[in-house]
Design brief:
- The protein has helices at residues 11-29, 62-67, 81-85, 109-115, 142-149, 187-191, 243-247, 290-293; strands at residues 94-99, 105-108, 119-126, 131-141, 157-162, 182-186, 196-201, 204-205, 215-217, 230-236, 271-274, 281-282.
- It is globular and about 45 Å long.
- The chain has a single domain, classed as Sulfite Oxidase, Chain A, domain 2.
- Strand 7 and strand 8 form a beta hairpin.
- The chain has 306 residues and is α+β, with helices and mostly antiparallel strands.
- It has 8 helices and 12 strands.
- Strands 3, 4, 7, 8, 9, 11 and 12 form a 7-stranded mixed beta sheet that branches.
- The structure holds ligand MTE.
- Residues 36-37, 69-73, 125, 127, 162, 181, 210-211, 223-224, 226-229 line the site of ligand MTE.
- It is an enzyme of class 1 (oxidoreductase).
- Its cofactor is Mo-molybdopterin.
- This is Protein-methionine-sulfoxide reductase catalytic subunit MsrP.
- Its EC number is 1.8.5.-.
Length: 306
């Protein structure tokens, strides 16, 4: 099937054709938990009562982190992604950084790894579907790369784009998504010290299923903001439209800050299932990073800006 340019499809028709397709896929697979961040998903993650006190965070195992993935370019079956993505060519890899900057450039990933100190950051990752993990990432702050290119005073947002290569990413042949995967941040969110460009986890290079060789990690936002296999970073004046906003703007907003008080239209966000645990734990505002990031949203209505 050929890719239909998103300009030729209204969001509603994508949504409707996708719903139809998902229903068929669910029937075909006989699997209720097939879909992930999708508007047609059956979340299967809905809450029972969360425990009253916060629970300790222990990193998930390497096997859990690399064996349960959302990566729609390969599959909606989280446990199939690792196998299907294994052959992705991740070296050599270049990322273009440009747009409203004084010094646009195409960077070789090997050069970036040498240029910036690779740090370890252990972050919670909370998927909009209601599951979470704790992941020891390796990487460098996005702010360091942005400083290199010198954003101009017109730059207000940062737009990220995933590799578009249907020969390697088979689901990019599906017309039901407006490929390539795109995400965005406000410039101050992108410059925040918690915002990471990850190149590894558990001290090893990122495996393909986790977004090799370069993926974004924004720990206070739902996991879908943390875009994988980045090839382009652009400084722009207008708020970028992400893939999920384009598919279902009533369900997925630009901000996507983790917020237990703002339910997804089809399920509660008040609690989550930590992968590897039984039961559920309460979801924390800004995924537990409120002290660091709440000030970015002073005066904003977080229900409207979901
Ligand atoms: N990036 C791309 N390009 N394609 C995707 O399907 N899925 C997102 C995000 N980044 C996705 C993506 C979602 S929904 C989540 S929850 C996280 O990746 C999952 O990251 P992980 O598989 O490393 O846990």
């Amino acid at each position: 099937m050929n890719r239909i340019p998103s300009s030729e499809i209204t969001p509603e028709s994508i949504y409707l054709s996708r719903r139809r397709w998902m229903r068929e896929a669910i029937l075909a697979a006989g699997a209720l938990a097939l879909a992930a961040c999708s508007p047609a998903s059956l979340s299967g993650e809905e809450a029972s009562s969360p425990p009253a006190t916060p629970l300790p965070d222990t990193p998930n195992t390497y096997e859990q982190i690399t064996g349960y993935n959302n990566y729609y370019e390969f599959s909606t079956d989280k446990e199939a992604v690792a196998g299907l993505a294994a052959g992705l060519i991740t070296s050599p890899w270049q990322v273009y950084v440009g747009g409203l900057v004084n010094k646009p450039g195409t960077y070789d990933l090997d050069l970036l790894r040498r240029k910036f100190t690779i740090e370890e950051r252990i972050y919670r990752l909370r998927c909009v579907e209601g599951w979470s993990m704790v992941i020891p990432w390796n990487g460098f702050p996005l702010a360091k790369l942005l400083a290199e290119v010198e954003p101009t005073s017109d730059a207000k947002y940062v737009k990220f784009t995933t590799l578009y290569d249907p020969s390697q990413m088979p689901e990019q042949n599906s017309p039901f998504y407006p490929w390539p995967y795109v995400e965005g941040l406000r410039l101050d969110e992108a410059m925040h010290p918690l915002t990471l460009l990850a190149t590894g986890l558990y001290g090893k290079d990122l495996p393909p299923q986790n977004g090799a060789p370069l993926r974004l990690v924004v720990p206070w936002k739902y996991g879908f903001k943390s875009i994988k296999a980045i090839v382009k970073i652009e400084l722009v004046v207008n708020q970028p439209t992400s893939l999920w906003m384009e598919i279902a703007p009533n369900e997925y907003g630009f901000y996507a800050n983790v917020n237990p008080d703002v339910p997804h239209p089809r399920w509660s966000q008040s609690s989550e299932r930590r992968i590897g645990e039984l039961g559920r734990r309460p979801t924390l505002k800004f995924n537990g990073y409120a002290d660091e990031v709440a000030s970015l949203y002073t005066g904003m209505d977080l229900r409207k800006n979901y």
